[in-house]
């Protein structure tokens, strides 16, 4: 759609807003723009060039029953590096009309939905990762008392185009038991998702329709919870070397268990997951796409999400797919667990001190599925609970302590194993240890400063790293920072240093950020989902506002 049509549509919405400017009708929206001038880049197509991604979202609420939603996106003069090549120019990205009554909802247009934990379906937007895998179609839902039901169908968004596969399904939940006095409830859920793809250019020896089902049970009380979900996907062709195999045909399944306890300052959360061939795409050939185009389900890495530069080196990505690269590298999914433990030491105790102390422990371990793999015949026979080749493991301990009214700090220690061979399908295994000291000082008025130092110890891969950073908050609105990490034992690459300086300003519902420096290439992760970002040096800015 041309820019002129976009402008006309926006003017039309403004007229609607003026015409219905009653107390129960309102118009609101948001705007975000992220741009980079690439002074130097690992991707030569971006050297000495400017790129930006911009998003304008508008909503109009009519009588609290109708909601009109429109989003336009602009990638001028070109999209930021390592975003889909299909993202170009200016176009209408999403549009929906939503109708609500007390128990009923109907949506036409862009659909965002999640079935259960997302093992079968989750459509969402994450602009930092370049993900918007929403559906274009129809959804209706019903919610009353102890029953909720969702029915939907449509085509999936693929950047500024639409995928070929048709997607349809339903999700349901039944409240079997609900005692509000004791805060206990038991909920059962059942979901179905179908993907129908019949490419005109090829005929596969398996069904065009791939069916998937899931069932779940959730129990919750005031201090304990337990959830289990099982999913199954019918047989489908495995993608090998960017083409769908006609001989390697397998089904898939998933098990997810989450158990938690909260009592007397102690919190425990344990998650176990087993994924076997559970990558699911509205277009088969998009299997493993680095841009997550046509991805239907949500399978994030279940590991601790870190906030520091060195702890985000060699991060884990979930491995739900089959991959037979060679006889020494055969995968069919992942199996593993994560344990989080939190404890708040009370104030005015010997260890807690005047302000108390917060301690958190995280342990995670993820492996290939154990079994008998047959490379020549493209087959495998897996153990249900067998742990095969180790992908990743991590143990971290974090202590948060407030020492005085003006000084607090965080001490973090991480012990990590990363199998580069099996996770990235490259060469090498990396054992590392990371330590971080993060210190915050409150100064007079609204001023504060934060200083951190961190070190990564390893004899593998690129050897040791050292990093530090300082942030100064002039007030609640304006702050500046500088950080730097150096790979000081990497003599092969001349001990590369990555330094950045930036400022941010916030006012009401708006935020402006500018930074300059050199960014390390590697995986950037949000919520356990990662994309690769090439190394670059340049000037970056962001504008985020809502109205």
Q: What is the CATH class of the domain at 300-507?
A: Mainly Beta
The N- to C-terminal Cα distance equals 25 Å
Oligomer: single chain
Cα shape: globular
- CATH fold call of the domain at 300-507: Porin
How does the major sheet shape up?
24 strands, antiparallel, barrel
Q: Which range best describes the helical content: under 10%, 10-25%, 25-40%, 40-55%, 55-70% or over 70%?
A: under 10%
Specify the number of helices: 2
Tell me the strand percentage band.
over 45%
Brief summary of the model shown:
This protein has 547 residues and is mostly beta strands.
Give the SSE layout:
Elements: H1 3-19, E1 26-41, E2 49-62, E3 66-75, E4 89-100, E5 104-111, E6 125-126, E7 131-132, E8 135-144, E9 147-158, E10 161-179, E11 184-196, E12 209-220, E13 224-240, E14 243-263, E15 266-276, E16 323-326, E17 329-331, E18 333-345, E19 357-374, E20 379-402, E21 407-419, H2 420-423, E22 429-442, E23 448-457, E24 465-473, E25 478-486, E26 497-507, E27 510-519, E28 522-526, E29 529-533, E30 536-546
Antiparallel strand pairs: 1-2, 1-30, 2-3, 3-4, 4-5, 5-8, 6-7, 8-9, 9-10, 10-11, 11-12, 12-13, 13-14, 14-15, 15-18, 16-17, 18-19, 19-20, 20-21, 21-22, 22-23, 23-24, 24-25, 25-26, 26-27, 27-30, 28-29
């Amino acid at each position: 759609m041309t820019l002129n049509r976009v402008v006309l549509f926006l003017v039309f919405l403004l007229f609607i807003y003026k015409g219905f400017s009653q107390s129960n009708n309102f118009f609101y929206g948001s705007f975000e723009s992220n741009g980079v001038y690439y002074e130097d880049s690992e991707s030569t197509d971006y050297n000495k060039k400017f790129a930006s991604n911009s998003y304008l979202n508008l909503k109009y609420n009519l009588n609290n029953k109708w909601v009109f939603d429109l989003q336009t996106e602009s990638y001028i003069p070109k999209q930021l590096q390592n975003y889909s090549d299909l993202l170009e120019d200016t176009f209408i990205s999403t549009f929906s009309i939503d109708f609500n009554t007390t128990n009923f909802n109907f949506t036409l247009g862009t659909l965002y939905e999640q079935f259960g934990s997302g093992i079968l379906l989750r459509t969402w937007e994450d602009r930092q990762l370049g993900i918007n895998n929403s559906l274009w179609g129809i959804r209706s839902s019903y919610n009353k008392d102890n029953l909720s039901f969702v029915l939907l169908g449509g085509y999936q968004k693929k950047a500024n185009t639409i995928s070929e596969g048709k997607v349809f399904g339903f999700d349901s939940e039944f409240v079997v038991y609900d005692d509000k006095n004791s805060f206990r409830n038991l909920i059962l859920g059942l979901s179905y998702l179908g993907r129908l793809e019949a490419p005109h250019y090829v005929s596969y020896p398996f069904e065009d329709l791939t069916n998937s089902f899931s069932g779940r049970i959730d129990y919750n009380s005031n201090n304990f919870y337990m959830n289990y979900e099982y999913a199954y996907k019918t047989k489908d062709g495995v993608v090998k070397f960017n083409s769908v195999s006609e001989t390697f045909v397998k089904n898939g399944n998933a098990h997810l268990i989450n158990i938690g306890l909260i009592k007397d300052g102690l919190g425990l959360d344990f998650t176990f997951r087993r994924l076997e061939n559970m990558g699911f795409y509205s277009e088969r050939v998009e299997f493993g796409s680095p841009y997550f185009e046509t991805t239907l389900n949500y399978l994030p890495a279940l590991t601790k999400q870190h906030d520091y530069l060195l702890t985000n080196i060699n991060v884990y990505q979930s491995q739900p797919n089959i991959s037979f690269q060679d006889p020494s590298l055969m995968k069919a999914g992942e199996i593993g667990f994560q344990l989080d433990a939190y404890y708040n030491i009370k104030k005015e105790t010997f260890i807690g001190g005047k302000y108390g102390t917060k301690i958190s422990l995280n342990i995670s371990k993820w492996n290939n599925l154990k079994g008998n793999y047959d490379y020549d015949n493209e087959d495998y026979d897996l153990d249900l609970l067998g742990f095969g080749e180790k992908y990743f493991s991590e143990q971290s301990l974090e202590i948060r302590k407030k020492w005085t009214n003006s000084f607090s700090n965080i001490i973090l220690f991480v012990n990590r194993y990363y199998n580069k061979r099996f996770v990235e399908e490259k060469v090498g295994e990396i054992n590392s240890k990371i330590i971080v000291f993060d210190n915050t000082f409150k100064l007079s008025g609204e001023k504060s400063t934060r200083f951190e130092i961190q070190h990564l110890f390893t004899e593998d891969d690129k050897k040791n790293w050292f990093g530090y950073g300082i942030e100064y908050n002039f007030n609640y609105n304006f702050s500046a920072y500088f950080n730097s990490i150096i790979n000081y034992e990497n003599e092969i690459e001349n001990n590369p240093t990555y330094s950045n300086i930036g400022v941010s300003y916030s006012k009401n519902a708006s935020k402006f950020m500018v930074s300059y420096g050199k960014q390390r290439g590697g995986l950037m992760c949000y919520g356990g989902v990662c994309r690769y970002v090439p190394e670059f040096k340049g000037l970056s800015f962001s504008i985020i506002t809502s109205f």
